[in-house]
Amino acid sequence: MKYCLLLAGFFICSVSDAAMNTNGDSAFNYEGGRFEKNGYVLHFTSNAADFSAAVKKRMVDAFFTVYPKLVKDFNKDAAKEVRFKIDTAYHGVAATGGGNVVYDPAWFAKNPGDIDVVTHEVMHIVQAYGRSVGPWWITEGIADYIRFKYGVDNDGGRWKLPEYTDRQKYSDGYRVTARFLAWIEAKAKRGTVKALNTALRDHSYTAESWKQITGRSLDELWSAYSKDPVL
């Protein structure tokens, strides 16, 4: 909402914490708790009195930079209204359920540059697998692959995919699986991540999905990757 006062013959206006206008022309009021742009709404709450205003700003900006792209590319039916909570009672990094993400303020106090935690977590909202038939490591591997591809400042968070070692397994999840997926996209079959994401969400995923999508089984793909893991 916009408020204006007539002072000395001029209208002086300010914008409430409803955030941006529909065209996204004006700046957010980052002190607020509700942000809206182009049909997406983010609610941001915190019970950490000393949570960094600069980190909050970057988290809000990351959401509106990344989330609409992920919805467009991976699930057009994903939630348009999302809630972030900075919660001193939560101890971890972040956790997502439905359209809600809870973050540990202690993590950001120690790692203020790790803004792409947002990218990983909002991909879980887009995934929306429900009672998935797929293993956890694919879910987390896809989310870290998305961080790798869509992240706004992975370098600032000192985050990168690991180099391959023979101690790794495709089922390690997170960054190890993400790097494997990146290799598949680059060297085996482009579009694999989107196809897996769709199969997991509509509960059609089976162990045979890898061969149906890429022409090779999961074990065959990993064997080829382990012999030439260069991205």
TrEMBL record:
It comes from the Bacteria. Transmembrane segments: none annotated. InterPro entries: Uncharacterised_BSP (IPR007541). The keyword Protease does not apply. Keywords: Signal. Residues 1-18 form the signal peptide. The keyword rRNA processing does not apply. This is Peptidase.
